[in-house]
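# nightly structure sweep
# worker-07 picked up a monomer target from the shared queue
# config: single-sequence mode, recycle default, output format = structure tokens
# input follows
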Amino acid sequence: MEVTAPDGCTWTVRRRWFPKLRQFRRRKVNLDALDGLGEVGWLADDTPGAWVVGIVAVLLLLLLAPVVLPTLLFVLQVVLLVVVAPAYLALRIAFGRPWIIEATSDGPDREPMRWAVPGLGASSRARDEIAASLASGIPPGPETGTRLA
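# output follows
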């Protein structure tokens, strides 16, 4: 939900359904470990059979990649949407994990504010209270939930 504060700043107040994904750390790969692989037997030979197998493998890869890769990505998205997301939400509700209410602003010097509120209904009420207090120009108080950094 979006509200406008008396100073003209627009705030977006919402409940986070899923946590933010953390960025993956880059790992250094030890290329010295690849030196022991050596050649791949008869495929490393310079024979006509090795050339035919190599060309057929590359052609199959080029022909199937535009079909197989999007299909795999689509199946992965469907599995994620149908299986993992409802299971995550059900477990989150069952174990009473707090919901994160987040208020972000379009102002340049405004830091996002976050609160941890246990319970789905309580988080809905907290979201409404935070939006109402921001719209009236009053900073949200501690009664809405545990304020996060």
